[in-house]
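re the bet — no i am not wrong, look at it urself. input seq straight from the record:
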Amino acid sequence: MSTASVEVVYRGIFQKTMAKNICRGVVLAARKEGKIGIAFGRYSDSPERNGIPAKQFAVVSDSEEELEEHLSRYEPDNNDVTIVADDTLCKGVESWAWYGLQPINKLLGDGGTLVVTSTQSANKLIKTIHRKGSPYDLAIVKAAASFSGLWVYKDDHTDVRLLGALAKVAPHIVSLDSITKAISEQWKDESKVASAMKAYDMVESTPVGADQGSDAEPFSFSMPGWTKMEEGLVIRGIDQKPQEVPGWDGGYVPSRNPTFKKFSTRTMRPVINFDTCTKCTLCWLSCPDTCFDITPDGFYDANMEACCGCGVCEAVCPVAECVTMVNEEAFEDNDSQWEMWTKDTAGYAAWLTEKIADKPTRSHGFHHVGQYAEEIADESR
């Protein structure tokens, strides 16, 4: 086997425990085969606020000497497997705004496997993933994004299901037998062993050609080299004056960082019913990322490049279904909803109805106290 590595891309604080469990499970399973490994996070707590993408890694070798040699020159740019714990991250991730938007398959080695938890088809997912330029496999574990364990203990076995899928797509790293033994010993729950085995049997894998995928250019920017750095630490400030928008007399667009695009962290987005909006200002005042523009007619338009999808606006809105969080997979652009509404009110109403007709269960937490108990009661009927 030599040395192999697994990358887990997850949504910040929401999926941190799950990502750690997956990488730890890989190493423990490898030990069952006489191998040695290490699990670690590439990023610390800082970038994990608001569900910003972060990463965990597991590296496995045949011997301790080989592992030490590999880690001494380690750069995670040739992973055997990349696990994506939320399929909305397939469009690319921007963890710290250092490099711009990076393709989700950027650090996957040629011929490697991208494992994604998703309810979407492979063909649909491939359209959102940047073209790699070399072949790889796309394996789908049928599941919605799991944020279990953040506010309440609601274990849906996503971690062990992904471990079972890993054994199927990369048996050279760990076998199913080793995975199930590690799960049995560490989790002490035979139902989790059964979940891993079921995922092993059911995971679907699709070959992706070098020319398949989105041809969209990831946004990026250039950093100054060491020869251009100035004395001391220099951080150029952003002009805090409101942005000038032609024709927006009376409107207000706050100053924003032109480089850091928060939409890359989003799993759900708000859609606004301007016909029922009372202009109460609560969404604008409460938004932690200042993503609402005040339009000339006094409405509040969420800037979809600044919105991280936290759902605070929906929570504070006093008007029923005026702000509704909708799964990000229902959208293909970041266009202004207010502009759509002003240009074609009737058309916007139809668009709005279509988006919220099949409102999914909130995947980023519980909306109110007692919701978990209500869901359990509904499932038992």
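see?? The chain has two domains: 3-208, 239-381. told u. also The chain is about 30% helix and 20% strand. so pay up
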